[in-house]
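Subject: for your reference before the review

Hello V.,

The reviewers asked for a structural picture of the protein, and I figured it would be easier to keep everything in one thread rather than splitting it across files. Below is the amino acid sequence we used in the manuscript, unchanged from the supplementary table.
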Amino acid sequence: MARSLLGRPGEWLPQVSQTCKREEYEERVLPIKIGAPAQEGSWSQARNGTYPFTLPVEYAVQSVQGKATLKDNALAMGEVRVAVPEVPPSLAGRTVEVRLYYVLVDKERVALLLVGDRLF
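And here is what came back from the structure prediction:
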């Protein structure tokens, strides 16, 4: 549920809990405000072909844009296939227009950012 909330503009008050080593348990409310993407913000930059963040290690960021299929915890765009941690049920098996940013680590593609309209 949190994933779907974080994908929409609005104000949310999710409850966060933590179990400490000494069997203590804490709960807090974490206020989160999500606005629509700014015209010149990082989402817009990424959508237009510029990776908007600085990597802590020097890798060559690569990107590919086009129709992608999401299934079996992988994103496939032509010859490019990248494992993703989780495919939301609403996207499983769908073909969507996206831009994918990734780096090569030991000859394996590692996804950094996936940008598209109405993905989540």
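For the response letter, the relevant points are probably these. Helices lie at 2-6, 42-47. The beta strands are 10-12, 15-19, 25-29, 32-34, 62-71, 74-77, 80-83, 95-105, 108-115.

Happy to draft the paragraph if you're swamped.

O.
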